[in-house]
C-alpha cells in the first residue's frame, strides 16, 4: 500500500504541474478517503486531492447557470469537462491570450487520465474530441477577461485607482471597467470578494470596496 500511495502521489504531482514530491511530503495527504478500491480513484477523490495539493490556489467555482450564455454549446462543454478535477472555472479567470495555453495544458492532462496507461487510477475521466476542444476554446476566448489598458486611464495613479489596481489584480489580469455596466459591477464585486476570502487573499474593508466600486462605475460601459 505504501508503494501504491507513492506512485499515486507522484502521478498526480506530474499531472498538476508540481515541481516535485518534496513539496507534497511537507504537507501529507490523507489518501484513505480518496481510494475507491485498489488503485482506482473517482472524480470526488481527484477533486479532494487537487484541493489539498493546491490549497487556496483554487477558486470556489461558479454555478453553471451563472456562466455567460449558459445554454450554449461552449458553456455545456465547460460544465462537462472542466469540473472533473476541480471546481467550474469562469471564462473571466484568464484573458483570451492566456486561454489557449491553459486549455492545451488541461487537455493534455485529461487525455492522459482518460487513457489506460495510468494504472487505471483515474476513474471516469473524459477527454474532449478535437471539435469539442475548438468549441470550448472559442467560448472561453469570447467571454474571457478583458484586461485593462492602463495607458487609457489617467486616474489609475489616484488613491482610488491604486486601490483598484492592487486589489483586483491579485488573481487575474486587471479587468477593464468597461466590460460591465455600472449596474453590473456591484454583483461582480460581491462575487470577487467571496473568491478572495475563499482563496485566503487580503479582503479590503467595506470603505475600500466602496471606493473600488465607485472607480469601476465611473469608467463602466
Protein architecture, described:
This protein has 221 residues and is an all-alpha fold. The protein folds into two domains: 1-145, no CATH class; 150-218, no CATH class. The chain is 48% helix and 0% strand. The chain contains nine helices and no strands. The protein has helices spanning 2-16, 21-25, 43-54, 73-81, 99-113, 130-142, 159-168, 185-198, 206-218. Helix 4 packs across helix 6 and helix 7 (159-168) crosses helix 9 (206-218). It is globular. The model is unreliable at 1-7 and 13-38 (pLDDT under 50).
Q: What's this, in brief?
A:
The protein is mainly alpha-helical and 221 residues long. Helices cover 48% and strands 0% of the residues. The N and C termini lie far apart (58 Å).
Topology:
Elements (H helix, E strand, L loop, with lengths): L1 H15 L4 H5 L17 H12 L18 H9 L17 H15 L16 H13 L16 H10 L16 H14 L7 H13 L3
Helix pairs in contact: 4-6, 5-6, 7-9
Short key terms for the protein model shown above:
221 residues; mainly alpha; globular; disordered N terminus
**Counting H and I runs of at least 4 residues, what is the number of helices?**
9
Multimerization status = single chain
Number of domains: 2
Overall, the morphology is globular
The overall pLDDT, averaged over residues, is 81
Structural class, from secondary structure content? mainly alpha
Roughly what fraction of the amino acids lie in strands?
Answer: under 5%
Distance from N terminus to C terminus (CA atoms, Å) equals 58 Å
Order of helix and strand elements from N to C terminus: HHHHHHHHH
- Estimated helix fraction: 40-55%
Describe the sheet with the most strands.
none
Radius of gyration: 20 Å
Which blocks of ≥5 consecutive residues have pLDDT under 50? 1-7, 13-38
Compute the number of strand runs. 0
Amino acid at each position: 500500500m505504501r508503494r501504491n500511495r507513492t506512485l499515486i502521489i507522484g502521478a498526480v504531482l506530474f499531472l498538476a504541474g508540481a515541481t516535485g514530491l518534496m513539496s507534497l511530503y511537507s504537507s501529507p495527504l490523507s489518501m484513505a478517503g480518496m481510494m475507491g478500491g485498489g488503485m482506482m480513484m473517482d472524480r470526488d477523490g481527484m477533486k479532494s486531492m487537487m484541493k489539498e495539493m493546491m490549497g487556496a490556489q483554487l477558486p470556489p467555482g461558479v454555478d453553471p447557470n451563472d456562466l455567460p450564455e449558459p445554454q450554449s454549446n461552449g458553456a455545456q462543454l465547460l460544465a462537462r469537462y472542466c469540473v472533473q478535477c476541480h471546481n467550474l472555472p469562469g471564462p473571466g479567470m484568464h484573458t483570451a491570450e492566456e486561454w489557449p495555453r491553459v486549455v492545451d495544458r488541461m487537455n493534455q492532462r485529461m487525455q492522459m487520465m482518460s487513457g489506460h496507461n495510468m494504472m487505471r487510477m483515474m476513474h471516469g475521466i473524459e477527454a474532449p474530441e478535437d471539435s469539442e476542444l475548438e468549441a470550448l476554446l472559442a467560448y472561453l476566448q469570447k467571454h474571457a477577461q478583458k484586461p485593462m489598458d492602463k495607458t487609457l486611464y489617467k486616474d489609475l495613479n489616484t488613491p482610488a485607482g491604486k486601490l483598484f489596481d492592487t486589489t483586483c489584480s491579485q488573481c487575474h489580469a486587471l479587468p477593464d471597467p468597461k466590460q460591465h455596466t455600472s449596474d453590473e459591477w456591484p454583483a461582480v464585486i460581491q462575487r470577487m470578494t467571496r473568491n478572495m476570502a475563499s482563496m485566503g487573499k487580503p479582503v479590503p474593508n467595506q470603505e475600500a470596496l466602496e471606493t473600488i466600486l465607485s472607480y469601476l462605475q465611473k469608467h463602466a460601459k
